[in-house]
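Collaboration report, partner site 2.

Our partner group contributed sequences for two proteins of shared interest, and the home lab folded both. The records are reproduced in the order in which they were received, starting with the first partner submission.
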Amino acid sequence: MRQHLPTTLGALLAALLGTTALGGCAPDVGPGGDDELGGGGKADDWGSASSGKTLVLRGTVITMDEARGSRQVLAGGAVVIQKDKIVAILDAQQPLPGGADVVVLPAATGPSDWVITPGLINSHNHLAYDTAHVYQDLPLYENTYQWREEAYYDEHIQLPKRLLGVCSADVDELAVPPDGADRRVEMAGLIGRYAEAKELASGTTTTQGSYFGVSMHKGYSEHLVRNLDGSNFGKKRVSQVALGVLVSSFDPRALVERMDDGELDAWLVHLLEGTDQESRDEFDCLRAMGLVRKETAIIHGIALSRDQLAEMAAVGAKLIASPLDNLLYYGRTADLKTAWQLGVNVSLGTDWSPAGSKNLLMELKVVDRLNKQVWGNYFSTRDLVQMVTSNPADAIGWTNHVGRLKVGLYADVAVYRKRGNG
């Protein structure tokens, strides 16, 4: 099955039901804190009370719900949504709800070429840098600390961020309301909007990564997608805290205490991003800090050995890979096949546009190519979809919220149009 022309449920509602957005597709994001997420919007109630309509989406429904056994994919099925929650998953034999307050898409009768999936979850991104295109002349590096010293890093990646970060525009130019008496709007918010639009275009309803750590103008302070770095479902139980464990500002003691007290479901950390011994040694540092544990989700993990992956599997630690970025910088990516075989929860992230995928659909194409050319078709199509839906939801403690099409979960949904007979 090949998929294209995605739209999100929030966009469908905005266009067809006249609501601003759907609660299930909108985040509950608090002000920037230790994870430096810009924005002070709270958006869990977008459209949830104003519509009162029941939305029915018809097509091939890919639930990603293991509890359904062999019936996880429903040809001619339907997803029924009220307010911001999924209230029914119907197969082809079950009647659709009716009534004046029911909207059926694409239509109540006739064939549907739609493919309906859980909204995709991008577990690793840097939204503040997603205005840059892929740098064409990257040499191969041995670790992440080498390329940060290159001139292109400052000119191609940091300079656009700095320039846009200090620019502002009048509210009339941007068609947003003034924030009190302040009529100037920082451009940082537009960068975040642009990056979120790229996510939405692929059917992604959750991403990760900061803007610039600034307070956003109220004209666009409510985020378009959920963000792992903020507050979600009324709580903030996912943290990044620091890019790595070897930076001077990182103190593991407070983090370990929060984990021991049950305050965190997931801690995301850049680690083992490289191919040399220096990169491999970072896992030993992580262990010495008492942070090889179930809450830990290692971003990149290129240098992870089989023994280290087995240690992660034993405690329930997770892995978040960005294969295209890793191939461009280091010529290899994490050993996803071995990680999967050992039982490590594997998710995908795009990292950033200067050396990564435009969105998760592009990242899936890269992983699909690796699967065919490197991993001997070890992964099934379902496995690949799992890496961007149910796996990341489970990894961050969101199993009971999103990541599957299941009654009672939030309606974070992506709709694609099937192309051809595949």
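Second partner submission, folded after the first:
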Amino acid sequence: MSYLKTTVAALCLSLPMGMGIVATSASAEGVVHLFHRSAADPMRLPRMAMWQHCSERLDIEIIENFSPPKQYEVQLPVQLSSSTPPDIYAYWAGGRSQFQAATGKIRALNDIWDEIKDNYPAGVQATSTEPDGNVYTIPTTFQPNVFWYNKRVFAEHDLELPQTWDEFTAVAAKLKAAGVTPFLLGSKSGWEPLLWFDYMVLRVAGSEFRNGLMAGTESYLDPRVIEAMEMWKELLEAGYFNDRTSSLGWQEMATKFVNGEGAMELMGTWTVGNFIRAGLEPGEDFDVFDFPPITEGIELAVEGAVEGWAASGAGENTENALAMLKCVSEREPQELFAAQAQRMAANKDVPIDIYEPASFQPTIERFHDMLDAPFHQNLELATHPGVTEVAKRELPRFLAYPDQYMKVLELLEGRRNDVFGDS
């Protein structure tokens, strides 16, 4: 029997993209209020299939409330401060969770984490554990950010995959000389260039420094950050990126990639659906490679996103919420979600053969192998939202005016001091 009621919070009724009401409830032993960011059925339905599995198994009714993704972070504080805050809500490990902890709107989940952490590979476990030692989210998906490259373009120009920074820049130079844009990059949503910044810092300075930078204990004016920005500036000034980055978002980047208008792009795994729907064959028309090393001896950490679910701990249904969160950590519900959404499950026991097409499964295996290295939440999720706000405004500006890189770093450092103090 389905125990699901979809509702609209009164405070959200004015949203232009409404949240439909479905009055399909049944009596159950308990209830949880769940809030998440989904407006379109292709993502909402797989998420709710996962939750309904646990709802029926535990005899707990779900009262669902959802917001369009672009409005979710505006609506979430309103929901958490309401008289009926959600018991469970979609969230991310990293700086977002630490910020929520400071507001008292998130419950540490250490008491259930010890029981379920072995459902996850080491990389996901590490990413889910915050600097304060607490776990605030139960992971359900992970998405590494990697270089996607057009194999036909590489073959046409007799190019090998770069294994070093020098090889990487040599490939870019050869492509540009042949009239091909080496790197596709947009900044329409603000977050796209953050992936480049993050990896440049990781490859120049390493995981420990980068973790400190995200936690506010290291400086954006550190010589290693300056070096990373200067190296990126050289790539921009060499003309290795497309023009008019501000008019491109990740989907427009994918379109250009499909059309052969660029050879490579740095992006998360969510982009692959664009390639496959356009008729590109994984492993034949496109493939992936890691961001190349820069500083000798620096471990090749992976940057990406681990998404999950948090508990507010604010209502009468906390015990039900904890039971549901333990349940969604397991293979069966995550497999339901992954098979329907075609997003990689965080649970390590979900089989690879549920992902389609079969030709993409070897790449999925490689993504899982990446979890053996340090896996980091991307900058947008890893640091304080106040720093993210500046990064999403200033790094896109840097793409247009690379000579102003020090101004960008000074603004980031100023915001770091504002939100973390002079650490």
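Feedback sent to the partner group on the second submission included the following. Strands lie at 4-7, 30-37, 60-67, 88-92, 138-150, 183-184, 264-268, 286-289, 302-311, 375-377. The longest strand covers residues 138-150.
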